[in-house]
Amino acid sequence: MRTLLVAVGVVLLVVIGLSLWHLNEYALTPGDATPVAPLVTIHGVATDKQHDKIMLTDVYLTQLSAWQWVTMHFQSHVQFVPGNELVDPGVPSDELSAQGYLEMNGSKQAASVAAFRSLGWTVPATPSGAIISAVVAPSPARTAGLKVADEVVGVDGTTVDSTCSLIGAVHDVAPSTVLRLRVRPAVISASGNITWRAPETVRVTTVATPSGASSTGCRAVSGPSRSYIGVALEDGVRYDLPARVSIDTANIGGPSAGLAMTLTLIDQLSHGSLTGHHVIAATGTMDPSGDVGDVGGVAQKTVAVANSGAKYFFVPEVEVPAARSAHEPGLTIIGVTSLHQVLKDLREIGGAPPTPITAPH
After folding, report:
1. Which of 44-53, 78-87, 169-178 has the lowest mean pLDDT?
2. Which of 182, 187, 306, 344 reaches 20 to 30 Å from 224, CA-CA?
3. Using only C-alpha atoms, what is the Rg of the chain?
4. Strand, helix or coil for residue 104
């Protein structure tokens, strides 16, 4: 009896130890399929009160303890992802949440633009700055307190309206130069909503560019950069939408809901049933021109969609094999590359051609 108790005690200690040992390993597991229409509010143009059921789908991303890593190998529909594959080299994993919320913010913006443009609206775009999408650690930017989603709009009195204008401003300055950046600080709420404050000055001291740094990708900037501040960037753009659009995506990050949000907006801004009254789900990034991009975790998303009762699941063309690998009977997988193609496919299953309720201008 004593031997048994000792053995049980040892096992418990091992389980506790493994549970407290956190790995740089993550698991993707099926999340939820959520109807988008209840999340959407549109002010400024007429909308259709009858909404099709169009669902976005997500996955759960969980950092694993050693014990979870063991037990999840006995579960189905789990994809294991090393932490270093989720962020760029030198970028700490503590930026994952902020990056996901920034991607969702951009996805909502692109979905709104693509939806209005597909219905014939003119949506002007104005370059606004360079948005920080990652901060290397250690780096001058991290030391200065810059963070994901901050938008740089000036350097030493010169206006910055794009990634390349910021890169060009830093490219030729000597290491140890103190730059005065004009920055619109981002405020990310606990649920992932992002707002930007008025510009303020942030001083950053440059360092020599690390060996092996990638090219700038900017045509007007040639040769190796002399200085480095340690950020990844994306272009900031302001769009003049014909209406005010709000999509409540609390606690959901990433760009993969772009296609589902775009279709939901089109459905609400146009006459008739876009889906032919079928329950559908969609995953895929959306850009303002209507191109659909690939996403991750599609096999896990397919499981969530099948559990929701959807009949059709639109996925990026390159992700069709991953979706079909989930082997969910009764669910039709449709691969797409553009919004135009999705709308055509919807008409083929009985959907109405999108006809705007309010005349575009």
Report:
1. 78-87
2. 182
3. 23
4. helix
Distance CA 302, CA 204 (A): 45
Q: How many CB atoms lie within 10 A of CB 159?
A: 12
pLDDT digits (tens, 9 = 90+) for 215-230: 677 887 887 888 999 9
CA distance 354 to 65: 48
Last residue of a domain, one of 239, 259, 277: 239
Out of 76-85, 284-293, 319-328, which region has the weakest mean confidence (pLDDT)?
76-85
Same domain membership, residue 169 and residue 130: yes
Q: Which of 339, 342, 329, 355 is nearest to 275 (CA)?
A: 342
Q: What is the mean pLDDT of residues 58-86?
A: 77
- Residue 265: the pLDDT is 98
The structure tokens listed for 161 are 């309206």
User: Pick from 195, 219, 239: which residue ends a domain?
Assistant: 239
**Dihedral angle, C-alpha 161, 162, 168, 169, nearest 10 °:** 40
Query: Which helix (H) or strand (E) segment is 57 a member of?
Result: strand 54-65
Q: Verify that 231 and 210 share a domain, yes or no.
A: yes
Calculate what percentage of the chain has a pLDDT beyond 90: 71
pLDDT in tens, 101-129: 999 999 999 999 999 999 999 999 999 99
Query: Which residues on adjacent β-strands are paired with residue 130?
Result: 152, 235
Concatenating the DSSP letter of every residue in 212-252 gives: TPPP---TT--S--SEE--EEEEEEEEE--SSEEEE--TT-
**Per-residue pLDDT tens over the stretch 36-57:** 999 999 999 999 998 999 999 9
Residues with Cβ within 8 Å of residue 65, at least 6 apart in sequence? 18, 19, 20, 21, 22, 23
Asked if residue 260 and residue 132 are part of one domain, the reply reads no
Around Cβ 291, how many Cβ atoms within 10 Å?
17
Judge whether 54 and 266 are in contact, CB under 8 Å.
no
pLDDT at 331: 94
